[in-house]
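quick one if you have a minute, typing this from the bus. theres a chain ive been looking at and ive put its sequence and its fold in C-alpha cell form underneath. please have a look and point out which stretches look like helix strand or loop to you. anything you notice is useful, everything is just below.

***
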Amino acid sequence: MLKTFLKPGWVLFLIFIVAFSYLSFTVLAPWQLNKDDQIVERNHLIEEAYEADPQPVTEVFSADGSLHKEWERAELTGHYLPEDEVLLRLRPVESAPGFQSLVPFETESGETFLVNRGWVPTDEGNSVPHIDPAPTDKVTIVGMARYNEREHSSAPIEEQGYTQVYSINTEQIAELVDVPLAHDYLQLSPEQPGELNALPVPKLDRGNHLSYGYQWIAFGIMAPLGFAYFVWSEIRERRRARGEEAALAAAAAAVDGPTTDETAPSQSSAPQQNEPDTTAPSTEAAPASSRRTRSRYGGSKPDFYEKIRERGHERF
C-alpha cells in the first residue's frame, strides 16, 4: 500500500499541497490582513485629522521635511512659485484620467513644500487642458500631509509647455525645478487659495481584505484535509477491490472443484476379451450434473478469472 503513495503523481500532489498551505499561512493571508490593518490605521488618522484643528506646518513636519503622521492637516503661510509648476501626468481620479498640478510653496520661514493643488480632467486625446496658475501673492493654506511616492520608472517629459512626471517624488521634482523641497508633500484641502478640483479623501471603508485574509487561512487548513480525504478514499477503494477479487477467486475455485484424470485407462479397467466394453461412450442421457451446468451456464462454465481481470481494469 505504501508503494502506491510513492508514485510520482501522489508525491507531486503532496508537494503542491504543502507549498500551497505554506504560502497561504505565510504570504497570502498576512498580505490581506496587513492591508486591512493599513486601511484601518489610515481611516483612524483621517478621522483624527478632521476632528482636530489644523496644526502649524512645523509641528506636522520634522526639521528635515519628513512627516510625523500622514493625513494630518497642516497650516502654512507664504506664497506659491507658479513658474516652477510640474504636472502629474494622467493620474486617474474618480475613474477619469487627469492632470494634477504640483507647485512649490515657500513659507515665511524660508522652507519650501510641494503642494498638490488638485486635478483637472484631460482634453480630447489626453492633452493638457487650460490650467489656472497659482496665485503669487501671500496666502495662508491648509493641506493634508502626504508621504512621498517612489520615483516612477518612466522618465519625465516636456509636453505642451509643461514638465510632466509620473509620480509625486519630491527629490525628482526638486532636481527638475531646481528648488529645494521638503521630503514629503501637502495635498491642498477644499476651498483653499490656488485650488483647482480638490482631490477626494479616501472613503473610510475597510473593504474585503479582512475576509480575504480569513479565506486564505481557511484554504491553508482545508488543503491538507482534502489531501487526507483523497488518501483515505484511495485506501478504502483498494481494500474494496481486493475484497471483490478474493470473493471472485473463491467463487471460481468452488465451481471448478477438484480435478482428476479420468481419461487415462488402466489395466484393471481395460475391457477383457469376450466381455462387453463398459467404458464405451453411451448415447444415453448425460449425467445430471452436466445437464445442470448446461442449463445454468449455457453450455460453458463462467470464467471467474476474466471477471477478476475486468474488475482490475475498471479499478486501475
